Amino acid sequence: MIKIIEKIEGEAKLNFNFKENKIDFVDVEFMSTRNIENILKGKRAFDALVINPRVCGICGHAHLMATVQALESCYDNLILSDKAKIIRELTLNFELIQNHFKWFYLTLYPLFGKKQQILKATYPSQLMSKAIAVIGGQYPHTSYAIVGGVACEITEIDLIKVQHYIAQTLKFVEQNLLKVESEVFLKTEDANSLYDGDLTEILDEIKNSELLGYGKSYDRFISFGENSFFKKGKSVKTKVTHNISLVDVKESQITSSFAKNVSFKDKYYEVGPLSRAMINKTPLIIDVHKKYGDSIFSRILARIYEISQLLEHSRGLIKKIDLSQPSYIEPSIDISKLSGSGYSAVEAARGTLIHRVELESGIIKNYEIITPTQWNLSGGTRENHGVSQRAMVGLSDVKIAELVFKSFDVCSVCTTH
Amino acid sequence: MEKKMRILWLSAITCNGNTHSFLNYPHMEQFLDDFEFIYHPVIDSKYSLQEIVSNEIECEVLIIEGAISEEFQRGGVPIFEIIKNYSKRVQKILTVGTCATFGGIFRESDYKDTAGMHFDQDRALHNFSDFLDKTISISGCPIHPEVLVNTLYAIKKSVLLRVDNFLRPKEFYAYTVHNGCTRNEYFEYKVDNHKFGELEGCMFYDHGCQAPFTHGSCNKILWNEVNSKTRAGVPCFGCTEPSFPRDNLFNTKKNMAIPEHLPLGVNKRVYLTLAGITKAFKIDRFQKKILDD
Question: pTM of the prediction?
Answer without folding.
Answer: 0.97
